[in-house]
Design brief:
The structure holds four protein chains of four kinds.
Chain A: H1 2-18, H2 20-41, H3 45-68, H4 70-78, H5 80-85, H6 91-120, H7 125-152, H8 159-186, H9 192-220
Helix pairs in contact in A: 1-6, 2-3, 2-6, 3-6, 3-7, 3-8, 6-7, 6-9, 7-8, 7-9, 8-9
Chain C: H1 2-11, H2 14-46, H3 60-87, H4 90-122, H5 130-151, H6 155-186, H7 202-234, H8 239-242, H9 245-248
Chain D: E1 2-11, E2 14-24, E3 28-33, H1 40-48, E4 55-60, E5 63-64, H2 65-68, H3 70-73, E6 76-79, H4 91-101, H5 108-117, H6 133-141, H7 143-146, E7 151-155, H8 163-178, E8 182-186, E9 197-202
Parallel strand pairs in D: 3-8, 3-9, 6-7, 7-8
Antiparallel strand pairs in D: 1-2, 1-4, 4-5
Classes of the chains: A mainly alpha, B mainly alpha, C mainly alpha, D alpha/beta.
C-alpha cells in the first residue's frame, strides 16, 4: 500500500521534472507578486516591515491556487486518473501521494525562496526563520485543501477561477495563523501559539481532505 | 408620535430605514422571482409534455 | 422500524414531495407574514428606545435574525447534502440547492444591516469585527456553492459535488470563526457585538425571537416553492409530471 | 461470476438503458453491440464502478461492487477510450507504475518482455510522446499481459492497431477466456473462440436487456 503511495509521488515528481517550465511559473508568480507590493505602497521600510508577513502569505496563497488547476487535470485528460480509480488501493492514499508530490514541486520552493523575499522587506533573521517554518507547515495544508477544490472542479469550463472561489475562503484560517505567526514574532509576542495552530490545521487537513478529495474525484470522473 | 418623527428615528432614520427597507425589498423580491421561475418552468415543461403527446 | 424506514424513503420521492410542498408553501407563507408583522410592530412600537444607542439599535431586529438564519440555513443545507450522499436520494440534493440562494440572501442582508448599524455606531461602514468578517466568509461559501452547481451541466454530478462542498464548508465554519476571532482579538480590532452595548431586555429578546421565527417560516416557504420548480425541471420526463393539472392546463 | 441486475443509467437528460440484466460466467466473452450513443461505454464504465447507475446494481459473486469497493478492482482490468498512459514517461515506466498500483510485482525484465511481445521492441524506453497512436495503444494494452485479474473490460481495444497487432490481441483475449477468464468488449472485429462461449448483447435499437 505504501508502495503505491511512493510510486505516485515519484511518478509525479518525475513528470514535473520533465516539464520544468510549469514548475517555475508558480515560483516566479510568487516572487513577482511579492516584489510588486513595495512598488504599489512605497519604499517606506517601516510600513513594509509591517505588511511583509501578510504580503508574503497572501502571495503564497495565490501562487498555490495557480498551480492547483493542473493537479488532477492532466491525469484526467490522458485517462490515467480513470485507471487510478480502478486499482486495488485506497484512492485517498493515491490522492495523498499526488498532493505530496504537488507540494514538493510547488509549495516547498515557495518556502525556500521566501527568506530572500523577506529580506526585501527588511525582516529580522529570526522573523525569516519563523516565516519559513510557517510556510513549511501552512503550504501543505493549502495543497490539501486545494485538492478538494481541484477535484470538484475537474473538467469544468472556467475551472481555474472557480477553484479559487471555492478554496480561498476555506484557506482563511491557514492564512491567519501563517501570517500571524510571523507578525507575532516581529511584534515580540512569540509565535508558538500560531505555529501550533498551523500544525493542528495541517493534521486536520491531512486526515480529512484526502477523503473528501477522493470522493469528489469519483464524482467528477463519472 | 407623528409620522415624520417616526421616520426620523431620533436621527437614525437613514440607517434604520436603510436596513429595514433593503431587507424588505429583498424578502419581497425573492418570492416574486421564485414565482416567475415557477411560471417559466411550468411553461417549458408543459410544452415538452405536449410535444411528446403529439409525437405519440 | 423497517416499515418506518420505507415510509421515509417514500416521503423522499419527488412525486410525493411535490404536492406536499405545494400544500406547505401557503401555510408557511401565512405563518411568516403573521410573525414578521408582529415582529415589526414590536420592533417599532413595543421595544423601548435604547438609552445608549437611541433608535438606531432597532436595526438588530433584522440584523441578528438574518445572521442567525444565514448560519442555520448553511447547516441545514449541509444536513440535506449529507443525507443525499448517504442515501442517494435525489430530493435531498434538490432541497440543498433550493436553500442556497435564500441563505446567501440572508448572509448579504446581515452584512448590509451590519454596515448600516456600524456607520452611526462606529463611524465606519465596515469594521473588521469577528462576526462581520465570518459572515462575509459565509457569503463567499454560499457563492462558491452556487457557482459550482451552476458550472456543472450534469444535474447528478452537480448535486453530489455541491454536497461535498457543503459538507467541507460546514466542517470549516467553526474553524474559520475561531481563527477570525483569534485574529481579531490579537489585533485589538473592533470586537463590538451589536447586542452587547444595549441592555438586552425581555422585550428585545422576544422581538428578535419572533422575527427569527418569521424569517425561518419565510425560508421554508421560499425554499419549498423553489424546490417545486427544481423538481418539475428535473422530473419533466416522468409520467407523474405530465399528468399534473398545472402542466396540462 | 458477474451479474448485472436491473441496471439503469442516465446521462444528462437521456435514459440510455433501463432494466438491463445479464450475467457472465468464467470462460465467457460478452460482445456488446449498439449504435453510437447507445450506451456501450456507459455500461462498461458502470460495470467497472466508475459510473454510479441510477438504479439496479452490478454484482460480483453475489455482492454489490459498491460494497466490495477496492477489492473488486483487484478482479478487474479496464481498457478505455483513453490510453491511461503518461506521454512524458517511457513505455517501461508506464507499465511498471500501473503494475505497482495494481499490486502486482513485476520485474523490469518482465515489463520489457511484455512490451516486446506487444511489438514495441526498440521503443520500450522512449517517451510515449514520440510513439504513434497505434504504438501508444499497444503500451496501454501491454498491461493485460501482466494482469492476473479474471475480468477484462475492453472498450474498443482494437482502435488504431494494425493488422498484426489486432491478430495478436485476439489471441491474447482468446487465451484469457480459455483460461476461464471473462471478457466484455465492444469492437467491430470478430473474436473467434475455440473454447468457451461468446454472448452477444445488443444495446439500443432492439429490445434492451436480452442476451
Amino acid at each position: 500500500m505504501f508502495e503505491a503511495f511512493l510510486i505516485i509521488v515519484r511518478r509525479d515528481i518525475t513528470l514535473a521534472m520533465r516539464r520544468r517550465s510549469d514548475l517555475f511559473t508558480t515560483l516566479f508568480f510568487f516572487v513577482i507578486v511579492v516584489s510588486l507590493f513595495p512598488l504599489g505602497i512605497g519604499p517606506e521600510m517601516n510600513t513594509l516591515r509591517l505588511i511583509a508577513p501578510g504580503v508574503v502569505w497572501v502571495a503564497a496563497l495565490l501562487a498555490s491556487m495557480l498551480a492547483l488547476e493542473r493537479l488532477f487535470a492532466a491525469d484526467f485528460e490522458d485517462g490515467t486518473l480513470e485507471q487510478m480509480l480502478l486499482v486495488p488501493q485506497p484512492l485517498s492514499l493515491l490522492v495523498l501521494g499526488k498532493v505530496t508530490a504537488h507540494w514538493l514541486v510547488t509549495g516547498l520552493p515557495l518556502a525556500i525562496v521566501a527568506p530572500l523575499l523577506g529580506l526585501q522587506y527588511d525582516l529580522s533573521p529570526e522573523a525569516l526563520g519563523v516565516l519559513v517554518v510557517s510556510l513549511l507547515l501552512g503550504t501543505p495544508a493549502l495543497s490539501l485543501i486545494g485538492a478538494i477544490g481541484a477535484a470538484l472542479t475537474l473538467g469544468l469550463r472556467g475551472g481555474g477561477v472557480l477553484v479559487s472561489l471555492l478554496v480561498l475562503p476555506l484557506c482563511i484560517p491557514v492564512l491567519i495563523f501563517g501570517a500571524g505567526a510571523v507578525e507575532a514574532n516581529v511584534s515580540g509576542l512569540g509565535e508558538q501559539g500560531h505555529l501550533s495552530m498551523l500544525g493542528a490545521l495541517l493534521v486536520l487537513s491531512l486526515l480529512f481532505s484526502p477523503l473528501a478529495a477522493s470522493a469528489a474525484l469519483r464524482i467528477s470522473a463519472e | 408620535m407623528s409620522l415624520s418623527e417616526f421616520l426620523y428615528m431620533g436621527g437614525y432614520g437613514l440607517y434604520v430605514w436603510g436596513s429595514f427597507g433593503v431587507t424588505a425589498l429583498f424578502m419581497i423580491m425573492e418570492p416574486i422571482l421564485v414565482h416567475r421561475r415557477r411560471r417559466a418552468v411550468l411553461q417549458r415543461v408543459s410544452r415538452i409534455v405536449r410535444m411528446k403527446e403529439v409525437e405519440r | 422500524m423497517n416499515s418506518r424506514l420505507i415510509n421515509w424513503f417514500k416521503f423522499s420521492s419527488p412525486a410525493t414531495y411535490y404536492p406536499l410542498a405545494g400544500r406547505l408553501v401557503p401555510l408557511f407563507s401565512v405563518i411568516a407574514l403573521v410573525l414578521i408583522g408582529v415582529g415589526l410592530y414590536m420592533s417599532f412600537f413595543i421595544a423601548p428606545t435604547d438609552y445608549k444607542q437611541g433608535e438606531g439599535y432597532r436595526i438588530i431586529f433584522v440584523h441578528v435574525p438574518a445572521a442567525w438564519m444565514s448560519m442555520f440555513i448553511y447547516v441545514v443545507m449541509a444536513v440535506w447534502s449529507g443525507l443525499g450522499l448517504v442515501f442517494n436520494t435525489r430530493l435531498s440534493a434538490m432541497m440543498a440547492k433550493a436553500l442556497a440562494p435564500t441563505g446567501a440572501m440572508f448572509a448579504f442582508l446581515a452584512l448590509w444591516t451590519g454596515a448600516f448599524w456600524g456607520k452611526p455606531m462606529w463611524g465606519a461602514w465596515w469594521v473588521w469585527d469577528a462576526r462581520l468578517t465570518s459572515e462575509l466568509i459565509l457569503l463567499f461559501l454560499y457563492i462558491g456553492f452556487i457557482a459550482l452547481q451552476g458550472a456543472i451541466d450534469d444535474p447528478r454530478r452537480a448535486d453530489r459535488a455541491g454536497a461535498i462542498l457543503a459538507l467541507v464548508g460546514v466542517v470549516n465554519i467553526p474553524i474559520i470563526y475561531f481563527s477570525v476571532k483569534w485574529w481579531n482579538t490579537l489585533h485589538q480590532g473592533a470586537s463590538v457585538s451589536i447586542t452587547k452595548g444595549s441592555s438586552m431586555g425581555q422585550v428585545m429578546l422576544w422581538t428578535m425571537l419572533i422575527m427569527t421565527l418569521g424569517f425561518w417560516a419565510y425560508s421554508i416557504a421560499v425554499s419549498l416553492a423553489r424546490v417545486r420548480s427544481i423538481i418539475l425541471e428535473r422530473e419533466r420526463d416522468t409520467t407523474w409530471v405530465s399528468e399534473l393539472p398545472e402542466v396540462r392546463g | 461470476m458477474l451479474e448485472i441486475v436491473d441496471l439503469e443509467c442516465v446521462r444528462g437528460d437521456r435514459r440510455l438503458f433501463s432494466g438491463l440484466a445479464f450475467s457472465l460466467e468464467s470462460g465467457e466473452l460478452l460482445h456488446l453491440h449498439g449504435h453510437n450513443g447507445s450506451g456501450k461505454t456507459t455500461l462498461m464504465r458502470a460495470i467497472c464502478g466508475l459510473i454510479r447507475p441510477t438504479a439496479g446494481e452490478v454484482q460480483w459473486n453475489g455482492t454489490d461492487i459498491r460494497r466490495l469497493g477496492e477489492e473488486f478492482n483487484r478482479e478487474l482490468a479496464y481498457v478505455g477510450h483513453r490510453n491511461g498512459i503518461k506521454d512524458d514517461l517511457t513505455g517501461v515506466e508506464n507499465l511498471r507504475i500501473s503494475c505497482v498500483l495494481d499490486g502486482i510485482a513485476v520485474s523490469e525484465a518482465k515489463a520489457w518482455d511484455a512490451l516486446e511481445q506487444m511489438g514495441l521492441k526498440g521503443c520500450e524506453d522512449l517517451p510515449v510522446r514520440v510513439l504513434s497512436q497505434g504504438q501508444k495503444r499497444r503500451v496501454s494494452l501491454a498491461r493485460l499481459l501482466l494482469h492476473a485479474s479474471p475480468l477484462w473490460i475492453l472498450d474498443e481495444p482494437f482502435t488504431a492497431l494494425d493488422k498484426a497487432a489486432v491478430g495478436f490481441l485476439q489471441t491474447v483475449i482468446r487465451s484469457h477466456v480459455e483460461r476461464a477468464g471473462m471478457v466484455i468488449l465492444t469492437t467491430h472485429q470478430e473474436v473467434s473462440l475455440t473454447r468457451g462461449q461468446v454472448k452477444q448483447l445488443q444495446l439500443g435499437w432492439k429490445g434492451d436487456g436480452d442476451v
